[in-house]
Design a protein that fits this description.
- With about 350 residues, the chain is of the alpha/beta class.
- Among the domains are: about 80 residues, no CATH class; about 140 residues, Rossmann fold.
- Helix content is about 35%, strand content about 15%.
- α12 crosses α13.
- The protein is globular and about 65 Å long.
- It holds the Pfam family Capsule_synth.
- InterPro entries: Capsule_polysaccharide_synth.
- This is Beta-3-deoxy-D-manno-oct-2-ulosonic acid transferase.
């Protein structure tokens, strides 16, 4: 976070902060400098933090990863390439308005032809490069995993079931297995494929429902394959609130959302949880323009400078290309992410040097 705000003194408060500690140790720090601003990662701050800032006219924003993040999971401490800042609430909280929801509800996309052209080009680049939010999954041939296609294919997207996006984005608390069984019941003649969440597959998050319980009804992907590959040959995606649902929409795939993610309620998804605040009809491109271009901020973790989404896609594409295959991974004590960043930095420096030498 220091790199994101080089002109500010960044002070981190403890994640577990009791209200009495905030009252004694932190209120005066915030109020001592009129230039203070407060950022809260999701809902990690004390409950009265937002109310306190509003009362004293201190700028306050919630912070969360953006939708194009890194080449590894956040649980593996990979630095984020994008962050979303929201003064109202977390973008995944369907119970209250957010800055992102306001953008989607009010922005004049039809008049902003430059923005929409950027959105179209960025979508093309993202899909062509096979980029997603984390980009950590293995690239594979899905035909070898799915088999020959003889019927409609339904992909069920698993999530970390304790995830805040489910807690605040779904009135009914579905499990991943619930989602699989709903897809099975609604598509009795289709091939059902279940993709557990990468953090569950890699052991950084616990599964609350057992994938073995649905193996008789679905093909369970035990290997963490990339989302772009997993979506190949898929006709319909089922999700609770996952961003993978929106990435499916960008590929023209039908999406059923049991919860209410930020991209539902705008006429592009099969919605099972209505939202009275959302009635405007939008396209997937317009939602992308708001959520990926207007809403977040992007940052180059190598050059340590603010960038636009186009540059973020370029960097991730290069890092993805440099990512070693499983048989090329370094010894366990080495850090493959650090090695990738070093190699990318060396490549960028070499490119700059060549440009300086050109007449």
């Amino acid at each position: 976070m220091h790199d994101w705000f080089p002109d500010h003194k960044v002070i981190f408060a403890p994640m577990q902060l009791w209200p009495i500690d905030f009252a004694i140790d932190w209120k005066w720090r915030v109020l001592a400098d009129r230039r203070s601003r407060v950022l809260a990662w999701q809902y990690k701050g004390v409950p009265q933090l937002k109310r306190f800032c509003r009362k004293h006219a201190v700028p306050f924003q919630y912070v969360e990863d953006g939708f194009i993040r890194s080449i590894a999971l956040g649980a593996h401490a990979a630095p984020p390439m994008s962050l979303a800042f929201d003064a109202q609430d977390m973008y995944f909280n369907a119970n209250v308005p957010t800055d992102l929801e306001d953008l989607l509800a009010t922005y004049d996309f039809d008049s902003d032809t430059v923005l929409m052209e950027r959105a179209r080009k960025c979508i093309e680049r993202q899909l062509a490069a096979g980029l997603s939010k984390y980009n950590q999954g293995e690239r594979v041939s899905v035909e070898a995993i799915y088999g020959a296609k003889t019927k409609r294919r339904i992909l069920v997207i698993g999530q970390v079931e304790r995830d805040a996006s489910i807690q605040y984005g779904s009135i009914k608390k579905y499990s991943n297995n619930d989602l699989v069984w709903i897809a099975v019941r609604e598509n009795p003649n289709a091939q059902i494929i279940y993709k557990p969440h990468p953090e569950v597959l890699q052991g950084t998050a616990d599964a609350m429902s057992d994938p073995d319980a649905v193996r008789g009804a679905a093909l369970v992907l035990d290997m963490d394959i990339s989302l772009s590959d997993a979506l190949q040959t898929i006709d319909h995606v089922y999700t609770i609130t996952s961003l993978a649902g929106f990435e499916s929409l960008l590929r023209g795939i039908k999406v059923t959302a049991l919860g209410c993610p930020f991209y539902s309620g705008w006429g592009v998804t099969d919605d099972r949880q209505p939202n009275k605040r959302r009635g405007r009809k939008l396209t997937a491109e317009q939602i992308f323009a708001a959520a990926y271009i207007l809403y977040p901020r992007y940052f180059d973790p190598v050059q340590k400078e603010p960038i636009e989404i186009e540059r973020a896609l370029d960097i991730l594409s290069q890092m993805r290309a440099l990512q070693p295959r499983p048989d090329q991974l370094p010894a366990k004590e080495d850090d493959p992410l650090e090695d990738l960043v070093i190699r990318l930095s060396e490549r960028l420096q070499a490119t700059k040097k060549r440009k300086r030498l050109q007449p």
